[in-house]
Design a protein that fits this description.
With 321 residues, this protein is mainly alpha-helical. It has a domain of 49 residues. The chain contains 13 helices and four strands. It has a two-stranded antiparallel sheet. β1 and β2 form a beta hairpin. α2 runs antiparallel to α3 and α2 packs across α5. The chain is elongated and about 75 Å long. The chain starts with 20 loop residues before the first helix and ends with a helix.
């Protein structure tokens, strides 16, 4: 007999379809600017440069997501912290994902070098400031820590991208952010590290849940659309056993009211499959460009130290004058 003879069909997954993404982005930008103006009241130029760099970076991610057919793509700015782009697909491509991630920091680094080169030709202070900010923020973003782009690249390039690795990687990333923030007296970095710690706790819960599913030989590495009715019921039962709050809610509402929440909860457990379509040459190219982006500024600093000092002697005189 077929599976549906034994198990009822899984409920339909109602995916949120956010509207007014542009209006939400603009609203988040306004809040972002207001928050910075309240903290850095006399640094209007810096806030403008910072916004330009972030917007350029996130537009890279946004453009590639749109090009590769991601759904519900939206860009949001977080006051005093940064920005991010969200989007989803039923099946992810390793090659496309690497391009989406790289489309943020790599163009930003190129622009940073470009502005500094132009500044040396035209003797414009604002080009120096903008170029340095492009370089600094995008280079920092390539450090292999979760949830930075460097961390996402690292996870995608790992051969075994399993839950335990993600748990350890996220924990180490959170710890590093807190320690670095403490060493350099940057409290926002410390705060971000602690916020990451809450995410680590969530990943830990997912790790134990999926470990239980593997022990029960339940397939969770699939999309909701392809999830069998049998596996839906088994995952649902595991979730109800692990969460008293979920069970209490389900017991106190009608079956029709419970279905959307159960579908959403089961879907949150699933791991979207990633098509391993990135060739060895493509992965080596990404790693090479990644390393070059991180190392080149240091090499240039060492090789052209004398010229750089002369250049910044002009720069500081220009600022003062």
């Amino acid at each position: 007999m077929e599976e549906y003879d034994f198990y009822p069909p899984k409920p339909e997954l109602i995916e949120a379809k956010p509207k007014g993404n542009l209006a939400l982005t603009v609203f988040s930008v306004v809040l972002f600017v207001i928050a910075f103006l309240l903290v850095f009241t006399e640094e209007v130029n810096f806030i403008i440069y910072f916004l330009v760099v972030l917007l350029t970076h996130e537009l890279g991610h946004f453009t590639m997501m749109k090009a590769f057919g991601y759904k519900n793509v939206r860009m949001l700015f977080i006051p005093l912290m940064g920005a991010f782009v969200q989007g989803s697909k039923e099946e992810y491509s390793q090659k496309q994902s690497l391009i989406v991630i790289g489309a943020g920091p790599f163009p930003g680094i190129i622009l940073g070098f470009g502005f500094i080169l132009l500044a040396s030709l035209f003797q414009e202070v604002w080009m120096v400031n903008l170029g340095l900010l492009f370089l600094f923020l995008n280079l920092m973003n390539l450090i292999p820590l979760d949830p930075l782009d460097g961390g996402q690249l690292f996870k995608l390039l790992m051969k075994h991208n399993h839950d335990l690795f993600l748990l350890i990687f996220s924990f180490v990333s959170s710890l590093v952010l807190i320690i670095v923030g403490w060493l350099i007296d940057e409290y926002m970095l410390i705060l971000f590290g602690f916020i990451m710690g809450f995410r680590v706790r969530s990943i830990q819960n997912q790790y134990h849940l999926r470990k239980e599913l593997r022990a029960e030989e339940i397939n969770y590495k699939t999309t909701y659309k392809l999830l069998s009715n049998k596996d839906f019921q088994r995952i649902k039962n595991v979730l109800l056993e692990r969460s008293n709050a979920l069970r209490t809610y389900v017991d106190n509402v009608s079956e029709e009211e419970a279905k959307p929440l159960l579908a959403s909860q089961v879907n949150s457990v699933l791991v979207s499959p990633v098509k391993k379509d990135a060739s060895l040459f493509f992965k080596i190219s990404i790693i090479f460009f990644w390393l070059v982006s991180l190392i080149t500024p240091l090499v240039l600093l060492l090789v052209y130290l004398e010229k750089i000092m002369e250049y910044y002697d002009w720069y500081f005189k220009a600022i003062q004058g």
